[in-house]
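Look at one record.

>
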Amino acid sequence: MTPALLTAAATTGKSAPVTDWTARIGWLVGLALFVALVYWLMREGWKWRATLQGDLPELPAAPQQTGPVKLTMTGRYHGSTTAHQWLDRIVAHGLGARSRVELTLTDAGLDVVRPGATDFFVPAAQLRGARLDKGIAGKVLTEGGLLVVTWAHGDKLIDSGFRSDRAAEHREWVDTLNQMITTRETEGAER
């Protein structure tokens, strides 16, 4: 370098800016506000859906005497939907909240105990069927990876999805539930 260039560089005393912090902070604040807006809109949509489903009656509680236990299962509750419409999630009365679950099947019905969420009971007379499926609103598994129980509540048919900690149990649950429903229907027809 020539002495004239060195003198010119030394007199300016300033290097080129490396980072524009105001622009970077502005982008981060804008992104945070956008994420907050999206979260708020999702929450409002969830509340709106619960309002639309407000005609759904309160969930029944388990009776004191349920009879002998037929089956038990621990696993995950993945949600409830309108029957045979696997994307129409029901959120009223806490049915849309995923949670751990303890299922107990007795002659009286299906007791659904959900730690941290609303427990409910499906009376045997309200059970309509059980099947293995691969998905329910927001959860898709391998074929047959989900136990789906169809039940009546008020004037609505509901599918509730469960996944056992031991997936091999699903087939026994389907067979027992469907046999229980068939037996009840044939006994009712004979009367």
About this structure: The CA atoms of residues 31 and 114 lie 36 Å apart. The helical segments are 3-12, 21-52, 170-190. The chain has two domains: 20-52, 69-190. The radius of gyration is 28 Å.
